[in-house]
Amino acid sequence: MALPGSLRPGRALLRASMPPARGLCSRVRWLRAAGGGRGRLPADRGPPVASQPPAFGFLLDVDGVLVRGSQALPAARRAFQRLADGCGRLRVPVVFLTNAGNCLRSAKARELSQALGLQVSPEQVVLSHSPLQLFSRFHRRCVLVAGQGPVQENAQHLGFKHVVTVEALRKAYPLLDMVDLSRRPKELPRPTPGFPTIEGVILFGEPVRWETNLQLITDVLLSNGNPGAELQDVPYPHLPILACNMDLLWMAEAKMPRFGHGTFLLCLESIYKKVTGRELKYEALIGKPSPVTYRYAQYLIQQQAEKQGWKTPIRRLYAVGDNPMSDIYGANLYNSYLKSAQQSQAQAGLKRSPQAASAQAEVSLELRNDCNNSVESCESILVCTGVYQQNRDVPKEPEAVFHGHRDFCFDPSLVEPSYIVQDVDDAVLLAFKKENWS
């Protein structure tokens, strides 16, 4: 099924697809009726026994939900004691939906397996850049990749054939990197012959040397992919940019949140506009809260159910996260897309919303003809073990501080979770009770 509308929703499209606002008090009424206060559940901790295949699945964030830095949260291990049978096999389909992107899926799967004491396969992991394998029309272009970790290997695994790293570009044109005095060339270097023209930019995640990356990426955009050439006219529109992970902040072992890739994007956007007087535009924004990321995760959930031989269609998704501006916003936005898709089924084919941003390329999800469209809802569950602090309210007013990306408008209904619980174990128990799965 192709995702309705454009891959990166424009502001008008977002407003048109928003669900009606609901207060937090009404969203947690079920918890209180069940005998617990806000974020608390009854003390029943015994693992339920499923009598039938599940009609639901979990989309679990990692940092702040399952781990803090490299340390697993105790609630995460308790949650997977519920989710797995005595042999360690999952009884419910689970996808680990993280905005991390500085590693391979296989490496993240090994890391999660060790942290949770459960065998996690790479097919259960969605990193911020995983959906880029669907963008086949860019795979044969020469692309500049920025981030940290195995960025070149990641790009190649995703299908990109011609990859240039920022470090390779810096070595080819050493005069471009002038901030660090210790790295400036002592003698005037010879021109680098045969260096390829760059045809696109992929931003995997926050880099280590921000000043070098900001300078060289800007050089590539201003020179239309030929940073060694003398600047004539600034091209606009600029080369296509695909950016992964829009998180302004994320939670590690520190007591306060840390800068994420969204902060780096903010810097790049500000510099480009200050230099050119024009807006930096993205071909696509991937990772939470982008709907294409949730659609891809849904596909993997359905694949898991099929491999297990479960005949019951997956009807509901429970997205558990700690960040209202990415996890909750993304789950609520995708839920609105699911509702819109259901309303569109009566029509002949899916039509692109006329309110979608015209500059945004529409990308169909070539996911498989047998991927059924059974999912009806995606409910958001906010935990208090990460970015979200229980003593702080979710912003209610439009003028409140918005930590989301500039291309996603702020609306209170999109950052209000369906439920607030203490931790991921409570989130799993909540879903089991809602599904009457015991």
Brief descriptors of the model:
about 450 residues, alpha/beta, Rossmann fold, 2 domains, elongated
Element-by-element helix/strand order = HHHEEEHEHEEHEHEHEEEHEHEHEHEH
- Under CATH, the topology of the largest domain can be stated as Rossmann fold
Number of separate strands: 15
- What strand order characterises the main sheet? 5-4-1-13-14-15
Please report the number of helical segments: 13
The value of Rg in angstroms is: 22 Å
Task: List segments where confidence is low: pLDDT < 50 over at least 5 consecutive residues.
Answer: 1-49, 348-371
Structural class: alpha/beta
- CATH H level, superfamily name of the largest domain: HAD superfamily/HAD-like
| Mean of pLDDT | 82
Specify the CATH architecture of the largest domain.
Answer: 3-Layer(aba) Sandwich
Strand content: 5-15%
Taken together, the total number of domains comes to: 2
Termini gap: 32 Å
Task: Characterize the largest beta sheet: strand count, sense, and whether it forms a barrel.
Answer: 6 strands, parallel
| Shape, per Cα inertia axes | elongated
In percent, how helical is the residue content? 25-40%
Q: What's the level 1 CATH class of the largest domain?
A: Alpha Beta
